[in-house]
Design brief:
Radius of gyration: 53 Å
Largest sheet: none
Order of helices and strands: HHH
Keywords: Coiled coil
Distance between the termini: 169 Å
Number of helices: 3
Strand content: under 5%
Coiled coil: 1-64
Number of strands: 0
């Protein structure tokens, strides 16, 4: 009987140990489940935060790319506008030079026509005066004198015509050189403007000074044309007429 009681006591003690062990295991399982749940929550939070940051970075990158595209489009449009403006300047300069050349040619042609008409009128008057003279001997001498004067008049007229043609050719050459110089100046100005737009390290005052000087030089080249034309009309033509004794 005592052995049975001892056996039961030992069995109860073992059962208590098993229950305590089961309770500890259950507690550990609960703690592990709690830890796992916490880790899952932290992982989900980290995934959500990472996704949010990636979306924000993608939006920022997209906005930056769009900004760069717009900036490039604006620059292309700006340079295109500059190119159109410079092309329009070249076209206007070309038309202005062509018009000036046409006006000068017309004036030269008028001068040539006037000289030819004046010389012809003088020859006719001299020929009429010879017919009114009497006497065979005096008439012969006058006729010889008239032929000599006529030959001199023809030579003078030819020389004057040659000088006018030479002046006209020289003027055409000057205007052609000026036209080429204006075109080259416009191209140089366009290149300098594009370089200045890319070099932002320079002060605006320096860039403005360079462009202003170029514009002054461009305007001076255009204004020289009127001065050369006036010089030819006021100096060269009267000098030619004076050299050959033609009254204006």
């Amino acid at each position: 009987m005592e052995e049975y009681l001892q056996y039961m006591k030992t069995l109860r003690s073992q059962m208590d140990d098993v229950e305590d062990q089961a309770a500890k295991v259950s507690m550990e399982e609960q703690m592990q489940l709690t830890t796992i749940q916490t880790l899952e929550n932290d992982l989900n939070s980290a995934i959500s935060e990472t996704k949010r940051l990636m979306e924000e970075q993608m939006k920022n990158a997209e906005a930056q790319v769009c900004s760069l595209i717009l900036e490039k489009a604006e620059k292309d449009s700006f340079f295109g506008a500059l190119e159109l403006i410079d092309q329009e300047r070249i076209n206007l300069s070309s038309k202005l030079i062509e018009k000036s050349l046409s006006d000068v040619n017309a004036k030269l042609q008028q001068q040539q026509d006037w000289v030819y008409s004046h010389c012809t009128h003088m020859e006719l008057e001299e020929h009429g005066m010879v017919k009114d003279r009497s006497g065979e001997k005096r008439g012969k001498a006058s006729f010889d004198n008239h032929l000599s004067m006529g030959n001199q008049g023809n030579d003078s007229r030819k020389n004057l015509m040659n000088m006018l043609d030479s002046a006209k050719a020289k003027l055409d050459e000057i205007l052609q050189m000026k036209f080429e110089l204006v075109i080259e100046n416009c191209k140089t100005k366009q290149a300098i403007e594009q370089v200045n737009l890319r070099e932002n390290d320079f002060k605006p005052e320096l860039r403005a000074m360079d462009i202003k000087r170029l514009e002054e030089e461009f305007n001076a080249l255009l204004s020289d044309k009127a001065g050369e034309t006036e010089y030819l009309e006021d100096s060269v033509f009267p000098w030619c007429l004076k050299m050959y004794g033609v009254a204006t």
